[in-house]
Predict the structure of Oxidoreductase.
Amino acid sequence: MLKAGVLGAGHLGKIHLRLLNQSDKYELVGFYDPDKDNAKKIVEEFGYTYFDTIEGLIEAVDVVDIVTPTLSHYECAVKAINKKKHVFLEKPISNTVEEAESIIKLATENKVKGQVGHVERFNPAFTAVNEKINTPMFIEAHRLAEFNPRGTDVPVVLDLMIHDIDAILSVVNSKVKHISASGVAVISHSPDIANARLVFENGCVANLTASRISLKNMRKSRFFQKDAYIAVDFLEKKVEVVKMKDAPQVPGDFDMILQNAEGERKQIYFENPDIDANNAILDELETFADAIENDTTPVVTLEQGTEALRVAKGIIEAFDKN
């Protein structure tokens, strides 16, 4: 069982504390938070052990779970990795691509593992179909959220859209060739609504929209490929898979048959993959434990987290060009 400690006990940090405490793969040693009043409340309510320094917590654990504001990810990761501790970093991996690349280099030198908290990779709707997503050529993603002051210190791209960026990069086996984007600041000092168009070297195009000032929540992505249309509802945890195959010589009464101008006939049919209920945050933490114990590659590597950040920063840079 791996000894784990949490840096940062805000909204998400408290969730990580609870899940690590109930996990069979970790022993929760304690946490550090600079807000001593908040830390005191957590100790009184849950009984978790509080460390009054980051260094003290790092020394006491095998795995450091970094759930602090993004600006401090790099500093916390460096302290942990230099003590040869494995690191789990909430998304985005860090504030800059240069910091992220430095984290990768340090982790390699110190022979420790790292994983980035792109939790939608563990969403049961996405995991039910991700192996069916094969060379998509057009992708459309919408991630809309009602206004919440938490997270508005960063552009909506780093707050919300980066979830879809990572998911898309994980299924498109090609590099991003061109980025165009526009963003509008409505309530915050950084964009609250954004739209981006990613063009990949293999010809795939992805349109992404994110908003944190919507009237309702929505997290949907649609993947179009040669033989299928796949829709993923990350919020409702539902999927829709529509596929095509050559039409039978003698179709059934209820078969859906399409014929193109060249006379080719295709049959449309539906698949309903099983979706297993899960706790995605617990799954991402426990698969990281498995990667450490079995010396395998984490599901979301530091390199993948860095690439998602690189594309997100490219989108933000494209705002200025427009």
Observations:
- The chain has nine helices and 14 strands.
- The two ends are 51 Å apart (CA to CA).
- The longest strand covers residues 176-184.
